[in-house]
Design a protein that fits this description.
The chain is α/β, with parallel strands linked by helices. The chain has one domain: Vaccinia Virus protein VP39 (Rossmann fold, 3-Layer(aba) Sandwich). The chain has twelve helices and nine strands. The protein has helices spanning 9-19, 21-31, 48-63, 81-90, 101-114, 152-162, 186-192, 200-209, 221-237, 239-242, 248-266, 282-287; strands at residues 71-75, 93-98, 120-124, 137-143, 163-172, 175-176, 212-219, 270-271, 273-279. Helix 9 runs antiparallel to helix 11 (248-266). The longest helix has 19 residues, at 248-266.
Length: 291
């Protein structure tokens, strides 16, 4: 069991939030069920779950070819939708790391129902201190989770530590647009209790500092706006139904928070998309050691 005393303040805030009954019910019933991240939409009114699964498929394609049995470390694995997709579709072994015990319990239950518990191991742990050995992973994967870290640079250090030379990190994360200040994002930051957000160029720089070279940046900020719009629409449409399992206060605060994300994306203050980084081979790391 993860000891809250071992978490940063930002991680404690995230764990407390995602362990709450209101949040669990909201993400399970409204946000997308198994996949609780931003979706890639083909239409304005597409089902949230279908668009969210499309992001999983797109991020999997970004990895490139992998042999069955290759190891993926999923940082911030939520309910495990991506882990089950990777295990069932590509026969990959997944080490799923997540700080919410409530989400992890649901994740394990869904793995058993799918018969995939032999391919997926769920860790109650922080992705700033992953309980796995150096060089164990062919892929490190994360979807819209790293923003909750107390130290995002440490998450990238952990990704580099976990990856084999030549392995890849693929992830998405809601970010500030390059050059945008924390003052410009004050409403969003207050809502999620964070001091700042990453940005595309910050992640590029942080990755380079630990031997991770960015190969792909597929900017898709329009999908962030569309996703939060769809979730907002669903929340308002289903309020009467949802108030049986989710408090009215939570839904009102969530509706306001979703609008902040929509406004931030539409105004160009936010950024979102798919990234791929590759860990430099050992010879490059040695040669670059004095840079």
């Amino acid at each position: 069991m993860l000891d809250a005393a071992d978490l940063t303040a930002a991680e404690q805030t995230a764990a407390t939030y995602y362990n709450s009954d209101d949040a669990d019910q909201f993400y399970a019933h409204v946000w997308g069920g198994e996949d609780i991240h931003i979706g890639l939409y083909e239409g304005d009114h597409e089902c949230i779950a279908a668009a969210s699964r499309r992001t999983v498929e797109a991020l999997a394609r970004l990895i490139g070819p992998l042999e069955p049995g290759s190891v993926v470390v999923d940082l911030g694995s939520g309910y495990g939708g991506a882990a089950r997709y990777l295990a069932s579709t590509h026969q990959l072994r997944v080490e799923a790391v997540n700080i919410s015990s409530v989400e992890n319990d649901r994740h394990r239950t869904l793995n058993h129902r799918s018969g995939l518990q032999g391919l997926i191991r769920v860790h109650d742990a922080s992705f700033e201190a992953v309980p796995l050995p150096n060089g164990c992973a062919d892929v490190v994967w994360s979807q819209d989770a790293i923003l909750h870290a107390g130290d995002r640079q440490q998450v990238l250090r952990e990704a580099a530590r976990l990856l084999k030379p030549g392995g890849v990190l693929v992830f998405t994360d809601p970010m500030a647009a390059d050059g945008v200040t924390t003052t410009d994002l004050s409403a969003i930051l207050q809502r999620i209790h964070l001091a700042d957000l990453g940005s595309p160029e910050r992640y590029c720089s942080w990755g380079a500092s630990v031997g991770l070279e960015r190969e792909v940046w597929d900017e898709q900020t329009a999908m962030l706006v569309r996703h939060y719009t769809r979730v907002h629409e669903e929340l308002l449409r289903r309020t009467s139904e949802l108030k049986v399992v989710i408090s009215i206060d939570y839904m009102q605060r969530m509706a306001a928070g979703l609008q902040h994300w929509i406004d931030g994306g539409e105004s160009g203050r936010l950024s979102w998309g798919l990234m791929r980084f590759r860990k430099r081979p050992l010879d490059c790391l040695v040669l670059g050691g004095g840079e």
